[in-house]
Design a protein that fits this description.
By secondary structure, this protein is of the alpha/beta class. It is built from 8 helices and 12 strands. The radius of gyration is 19 Å and the shape is elongated.
Length: about 250
Amino acid sequence: MEENLGKEIKRVLVVDDEQAIIDVLVYNLKKEGYETLEANDGLTAVNIALEEKPDLMLLDIMLPKLDGLSVCKRVKNHLNIPILMLTAKDAEIDKIVGLELGADDYITKPFSVRELMARVKANLRKNEISNISKEIITDIKETETKNENIIEVNNLELDLDRFEVKVRGEIIDLTLREFEVLKFLAMQPGQVVTRETLLEKVWGYEYYGDIRTVDVTVRRIREKIEKDTSNPKILITKRGVGYYIATKK
């Protein structure tokens, strides 16, 4: 709780149809210094989120009245807050982490409370610094740029002020997380970055053993930026190691 002294207290909306789970999460969140809001169904969750504007949502998938994925989509249409999905279904992970609905992270039940608190902290921190992350670029040597906040490599152009990506001159609609992954790789073109490094640097928490978060996100990015996902020319896999941005077109 010491970390919250002198800082704005963050509010977390906990959404689950099992009150016992909510009680455990609320107890641990409050112990860490967060304020909490609660909802037991999807419709209530949307209403509370839009009215109260929490700093983060912990959102179960299986909810009455409106499922968690629909809640995520509706909230993300209005609020730019981190949403961490809770799921007991391993098969749902690809859909969640695909981020087409805007989810920032996921964790499967049963989960470690310690890990969950680390995820909450990391996603809040990541959201806070996203608006100033462009300052990192001052240390990067760039070529063929319009200004210091543009990265150009291969057929990619990333505008760090607008959080905008163009591929071959066409604007591509990426989620914030997809943009951050692409930016991290584009800032060091040609250099292979491990999945573990991406998980730590982009998601902001220490590696816990599940790197599918990275793999699925990369796949979604490829679907948007590559002409042929089976033969990518921009975002390349170094088998058994990680990913990199090709420097040649």
